[in-house]
Amino acid sequence: MTRSSPFHVLAGALWRLLVAGVVLLALYVAAGRALMGNVSALQPQLLAALNERLPFTLSASSVSGRMEAFSPELVFTDLRLAFPGEAIEPVQLARGSLRLAPLRSLLTRSPQASFVTLSGLSVELDQDEAGHLRLRGFGVPGDDGGLRDWLASFLPRVRALVLEDNRVLLHRPDAQGRRARLDLTLRRSGSARTLDARIETAVGNAATLHAEGIGNPLSPATWRGDVFLALEAERLERLFDWLPVTVPVRAAGRAGVQLWLQQAGGRSDLRLSLAGDNLLLEGGGGGWRVPLASLAMDAALVEGGEGWTLHASDLSLAQGGRHWLLPRAQFDLRGDSLRVRSGEFRLDGIDSFLASLPSMPPRLADALGVLAPRGDVRALEFSLDDLRAPGRGWELTARVDDLAVESWRGAPGAAGADAFVRLYPGGGDVRIDSEGLVLAFPKVYREPLAYDTVHGDLRLRWDPEQLWIRSGLLEASGEEGTARALLGLHIPFSRTTVGPAMELLVGLGDSRARYRDKYLPYRLPATLRRWLADAIGPGRVVTGGFAWRGSLLEGNYDHLTVQLHFDVEDATVAFDPAWPPLEVFAGRLVIDDSRVSVWGERGEIAVWIVEDGQLKIGSQVSGFPTAA
Q1: I want to staple 462 with a disulfide (CB 3.0 to 4.6 A). Which of 242, 266, 424, 467 is the partner?
Q2: Contact, 430 vs 457, CB < 8 A?
Q3: End-to-end CA distance of the chain
Q4: Is 88 within 8 Å of 55 (Cβ atoms)?
Q5: DSSP strand pairing (249-264 vs 224-233)
């Protein structure tokens, strides 16, 4: 007789256990199917048993049962949940199913759900004037008969919760209700959670959410995970109705947004990608509006101790046929205040963008259209003290290279200016530090004035009626030498007798007489301009000066005076073609409107030496009266 080895004995025992297990499982499934098939007959008893363990009363028009794999599942039709007291209104569902966990149910001696499905749920939300959302019928916060505590303990034990084909109705105090369709699936595996949701509104807005992580998502300090949200909005303004808080900035138009959120240890890292068109940004109180043909960017959003910071890259803006690309930009939101900082971008076309703003005053929009600023913005910072009242407190600072503006109402145009600009309500400051600057005074000089370098400061002030521009000492060097100037401009926004007026004082030292034409205004009488061109020949200008005081209106001579003076050496002066020229002349020539005065220290006429001579020409020139 052959003795069986221990392995044969163990194999036989395992085989018998396996067969017994299969038989028991088959009997379990058969019994389960038989029991689930008779659920309808046991509907009253089943509902009563469930209601003993629930904080609400469950009723249904019909209850059926089935086996899903090895788990029994109850299916409820026309489900109704009634809550104790009057704090919470009943909830209606078209259909619901409850899949039981057999082993946990046996161990706890009470029904334990593993999968819950709810279909056709209608949820109504109330939004108060502060923007807070609340489930309609939940009464006073906290007065829920223990429902919140029951849900908090029930949901972590469920492996899957599915909400499908559900309806959400939002009630607002100042507008008609908003409707949306919601599908949601929440799954659990150990301490890991996965959430998939999609919500669609009647106006074409849709959002898809996928989140997965470890821990309790209701406790941000302990939850770790990732969230992805894809948003497609045909009417972006409708989405702000669903926000649980009031935000200081709103938007309208069409946009697509993708967000990625990483949460760990109570800290969040949020990144987003945005693309929209036909947008309108506005303050929460409607105090300002910014239209945009298109907007696109990638960004990271960081929550700080005092507010939010948005770090944007590849920020693209388009409006009025113009396009701007900002490689970097930062937006700091602190309560109702905003600060924007940006790196390099082209300024060209900014006038059309600013003119398109609904809040832009028409006169300022017209002025910007004429100025047509261009240049390279190297750095910019813009701050608003209150988004709801942007006109009260704001400041703009910028470093601009190669700035160019056209002349406006007599204010000089410029090209090639490097400047630091600071603007604020009612005024501003400009610091110029430029090489290769060209200034245009179309009301004074026919040709622009070109300089190798220009340094100085300008101060701006304005109110609804007028603009003032005043300079400190401006220093410019060019081919003619070094010039120093003081500039003052007064530009009224309505018609006045004087009109736009300018005070321009220019001083020149150690130059040559051939550069005199650069500072001779074409508004001098034609006869005087021709005489100056022919009378002063080669020589050295020790000092020279030009003064314009008064109106820039054409022909407004009653409110204008123009003066020039030249201190010359070794010069040739021909007072009249019939006279012999005065050579090796040293003296001063002064022009006061149409009057010319000459004081000579010395000079030579043919073989004669002239010393301490004086000549005055005070003739009346038609259309340009002699100053008294």
Answers
A1: 467
A2: yes
A3: 151
A4: no
A5: antiparallel
Q: How far apart are alpha carbons 503 and 168 in whole angstroms?
A: 69
C-alpha closest to that of 336 among 283, 406, 288: 283
Please work out, in degrees rounded to the nearest 5, the angle formed at the alpha carbon of residue 195 by the alpha carbons of 192 and 196: 150
**pLDDT tens digit sequence for 113-143:** 778 888 887 777 777 766 666 666 554 444 4
Under 8 Å CB-to-CB from 114, ≥6 apart: which residues? Answer: 71, 99, 100, 101, 104, 158, 159, 160
- 623 phi and psi angles, rounded to 5 deg: 85, -5
**Number of Cβ within a 10 Å radius of residue 370:** 14
Integer Cα distance of 625 and 620 in angstroms: 6
Q: Which residue has the tokens 């400047």?
A: 419
- Looking at residue 345, what DSSP letter applies? E
What one-character-per-residue DSSP string does 521-540 give?
A: -TTS-HHHHHHHHHHB-S-E
Tallying the residues shown for the chain, one arrives at 628
Let me know: does 124 contact 178? Beta carbons within 8 Å.
no
Q: Give the 3-state secondary structure of residue 448.
A: coil
Please tell me what DSSP assigns to residue 242: G
Q: What is the 3-state secondary structure (H, E, C) of 151-174?
A: HHHHHHHCCEEEEEEEEEEEEECC
pLDDT tens, residue by residue, 198-212: 988 888 888 898 988
Burial of residue 41, with CB atoms counted within 10 A of its CB: 0-12 exposed, 13-18 middle, 19 or more buried: exposed
> Which of 536, 598, 532 shows the shortest CA–CA distance to 572?
536
Give the number of other Cβ atoms within 10 Å of residue 266's Cβ.
11
What does each C-alpha distance from 147 to 7, 78, 119, 158, 332 come to in angstroms?
Answer: 57, 21, 20, 16, 40
Q: Is 544 exposed, middle or buried (0-12, 13-18, 19+ CB in 10 A)?
A: buried
Residue entry with tokens 């002064």 = 590
Contact of 461 with 467, CB cutoff 8 Å: yes
Q: Which residue has the tokens 């649980």?
A: 244
pTM: 0.71
Torsion-angle region of 321 (φ positive above 0: left; ψ -120 to 50: alpha; else: beta): left
- E strands, 352-393, are 374-384
Question: Strand ranges (DSSP E) for 393-539?
Answer: 394-405, 413-424, 427-440, 449-463, 466-471, 474-478, 481-492, 501-512
- Distance from chain centroid for Cα 519: 45
Q: Is 469:486 a contact under the CB 8 Å cutoff?
A: no
According to DSSP, the residues that pair with 588 across neighbouring strands are: 567, 599
Encoding tokens for residue 552? 């820039």
Lowest average pLDDT, out of 52-56, 223-227, 243-247, 536-540, goes to: 243-247
Residue 183 region by backbone torsions, left for phi larger than 0, else alpha for psi between -120 and 50, else beta = beta
* Residue 551 CB partners (closer than 8 Å, separation 6+): 498, 499, 500, 501, 559, 560
Average pLDDT over residues 424-452: 89
Residue of 483, 481, 476, 484 lying closest to 512 (CA atoms): 481
In this structure, the number of other CB atoms found within 10 A of the CB of residue 464 comes to: 8
